[in-house]
Amino acid sequence: MSNKIPKSVTTVCVGNVCRSPVAEVLLREYTKRSKNSALHKINFDSAGLFGGKLELSDISDEFVKEKGFNLTGFRSKMTTRRYLTQFDQILVMERWHKEYILKHYFCDTTKRKRRKIEGKMKTLSEAAGIDGDIIDPFTIEAEKFRKILNTIDYSCQKIVSQWEKACS
């Protein structure tokens, strides 16, 4: 695989019930559909900065099903230092998530280790080459929530397209 193609990717949001599980399943399924078999080998997961053992939000579940994918039985999980260090790429939804991760999980590590984890982190938007954060839709109306999920979908498609180009 090219250096630009990660072997493992986690997507991270606040509670791991709205955004990151959707990004996880979309990235996984879009890479499976890729004609480039190198992308089929990428491992995907997701987690939240808080919470754990919660079900997927209803709107996220509907969205994933409409795309023809399934997250039945999904339960959220929380990030830890150990969890984060196992991934080649960490895709967060908002810039403050990067700061939070560094402050709460890597504040007592060496500068070298902090730089290494910083180098693994991007927002989903940054990775897709677009501007802005993907805001938390948890408490907003369904129509705006779905727009955020569509942005995640668009971003995931762009990321997979970039990986396909990097492999060719």
Query: If you consult CATH, what is the topology?
Result: Rossmann fold
Average pLDDT across residues?
Answer: 96
Helix percentage: 40-55%
Order of strands in the sheet with most strands? 2-1-3-4
Structural class: alpha/beta
Distance between the termini: 10 Å
Whole-number count of domains: 1
Going by CATH, the architecture would be 3-Layer(aba) Sandwich
- Cα gyration radius (Å): 15 Å
Question: How many alpha or pi helices?
Answer: 7
How many β strands by DSSP? 4
CATH superfamily: Response regulator
Protein name: Phosphotyrosine protein phosphatase I domain-containing protein
Family: Belongs to the low molecular weight phosphotyrosine protein phosphatase family.
InterPro entries: LMW_PTPase, Ptyr_pPase, Ptyr_pPase_sf, Tyr_phospatase_low_mol_wt
Domain Phosphotyrosine protein phosphatase I: 7-162
Account of the protein in words:
38% of the residues are buried. The mean pLDDT is 96. The protein has one domain: Response regulator (Rossmann fold). It has a four-stranded parallel β-sheet with strand order 2-1-3-4. With 168 residues, it is of the alpha/beta class.
Strand-helix topology:
Layout lengths: L7 E6 L6 H14 L9 E6 L9 H9 L14 H5 L3 E4 L2 H11 L5 H10 E3 H5 L13 H26 L1
Helix pairs in contact: 1-2, 1-7
Could you name the key traits of this structure?
Rossmann fold, 48% helix, single chain, four-stranded parallel beta sheet, 4 strands, 168 residues, alpha/beta
